[in-house]
Structures are given as structure tokens and as C-alpha cells.
Design brief:
With 237 residues, this protein is α/β, with parallel strands linked by helices. It has one domain: sialyltransferase cstii, chain A, CATH 3.90.1480. Strands 1-6-5-4-3-2-7-8-9 form a nine-stranded parallel sheet, with helices on one face. Helix 3 runs parallel beside helix 4. The radius of gyration is 16 Å and the shape is globular.
């Protein structure tokens, strides 16, 4: 039986957290001279953004990977997830696959409601893994959360940063790839959940910033990624 995620509550009180989504703009984040600076803080990798992480060595203390989607097991990057020296967290809907999941993974249950959050409920937001990650960061006590690559848009049928890589460097899957229309539906569901998460963040005196310039998330304040470590050094304090 996997241990429940709530052992992480209040683990990073007062810290800054960078949540790494897999949207197209994450390609530019990874190429930025400031990218490695995020690892001085709490980092949560969402699904395929693990590709950009070199977590095979070093302390796992402030490194997290999280997913709602059991289909990630069918992607080539799943081996990197299993080998990464990080805290890995999955949803309890993976239960039928527990026998193939490393025993040090943690598990979470989805909230009763995505749009009306019970502040005391020891569960996480769902629909997809970016809302889950935000919820986790708030519950861990982070006071500043920066969203990287959380775009919620497509360009020429591309929606993931690794689709900007050369073909031979792109991950592949043995399973089904969600069509663009399905991805767009999930994006719209996510955006509804962010309103509730902002209220939860305010209750916990936490500020959330979105570093995606073209991203569709309008609920959180926008900030330029390089500005976090340049003009606005105090933001990442």
C-alpha cells in the first residue's frame, strides 16, 4: 500500500515553488539562462516536464513529480520518472497498477469538488495535474508559486514543449494520445478550478504568479520568468 500524500503538509512553509507544466512555452524556460535557478527552490514537475529534469543524483528533498493520468506509464519518459531521485505522487485511480509502481511513491485522492474547495479536506484538486500541483504546493506551505509552461493553448496542433524538439528526441507512447479537442476541453475545466485555488491560496496567504506570456490563465498575476530572478529578485525570496 502506498503512503498517503498528506505527510507533505506544511513541509515547505514560507518557501517559493516552481510548477513545471509541459506547455509550449516551457521550451523557452528550459533554454533560459535562469532555468537552473529554480532548483534552489521547491520544484514540482508535471507529467512529461520530467524530461527537462536531471534528477538522477542529489537530494530529493525539494523535488516532486505528480500525475493524475495512469497512461503516463505507457510513455518512454516513465522510466525517467521511476529512476528520478524525487518524491513521486500519483492519484488513487492508479490502484489497479500499484503492483508495478515503486513502493516509495505517494498517493492522493481527488477533492469532493474542484470548484468549491474545502480548505480542511486532505485531498487534491483534479481534472489534470497542474491544478493538483498548485493545490499540493499550497498545502505544503509555499508562499509564492510560479507557474512555468502552464499555457493551455495549442499552435499548429502542438501543445507540448517537447514537440519543439527534433523528432528523435521526442517521447513516444504505446497508448492513446488525447486529441487536441480533448486537450482544449481539459484546459477549460482547469481554468474553472483555478478560481477556487486562488481563493484557497488567499486563505493560506499564498501568492500565485503565471510566467506564461501567452497563456490562457487569467486568474493569476502575470510575471516574466527572467524577471523573477532579475528585476524582481525579492519575488523568489
Amino acid at each position: 500500500m502506498l503512503q498517503y500524500y498528506n505527510i507533505l503538509k506544511d513541509k515547505h512553509v514560507g518557501s517559493s515553488c516552481f510548477i513545471c507544466g509541459a506547455g509550449l512555452s516551457f521550451f523557452d524556460i528550459v533554454e533560459s539562462k535562469y532555468f537552473n535557478n529554480i532548483f534552489d527552490h521547491v520544484v514540482i514537475s508535471v507529467n512529461s516536464s520530467i524530461i527537462a529534469m536531471s534528477w538522477f543524483d542529489g537530494s530529493p528533498d525539494n523535488r516532486y513529480w505528480i500525475s493524475n493520468d495512469s497512461a503516463v506509464r505507457l510513455w518512454t519518459y516513465w522510466e525517467q520518472v521511476k529512476k528520478s531521485n524525487a518524491t513521486r505522487i500519483i492519484r488513487d485511480s492508479w490502484k489497479k497498477y500499484y503492483s508495478e509502481i515503486p513502493k516509495d511513491f505517494l498517493v492522493f485522492s481527488p477533492r469532493s469538488s474542484n470548484n468549491n474547495i474545502d480548505f480542511e479536506e486532505e485531498k487534491l484538486s483534479f481534472v489534470s495535474s497542474v491544478p493538483t500541483s498548485i493545490d499540493l504546493a499550497i498545502q505544503m506551505g509555499c508562499k509564492k508559486i510560479f507557474l512555468l509552461g502552464c499555457d493551455h493553448y495549442t499552435v499548429n496542433n502542438k501543445s507540448h514543449f517537447w514537440q519543439r524538439y527534433a523528432k528523435e528526441k521526442q517521447p513516444t507512447t504505446k497508448g492513446h494520445i488525447a486529441p487536441v479537442l480533448m486537450q482544449q476541453f481539459i484546459f477549460s475545466q482547469n481554468i474553472e478550478s483555478y478560481v477556487a485555488l486562488k481563493k484557497f491560496a488567499e486563505h493560506k496567504e499564498c501568492n500565485i504568479f503565471d510566467c506564461s506570456k501567452r497563456g490562457r490563465i487569467k486568474v493569476f498575476d502575470k510575471i516574466d520568468f527572467e524577471g523573477v530572478f532579475n528585476e524582481n529578485l525579492e519575488v523568489a525570496g
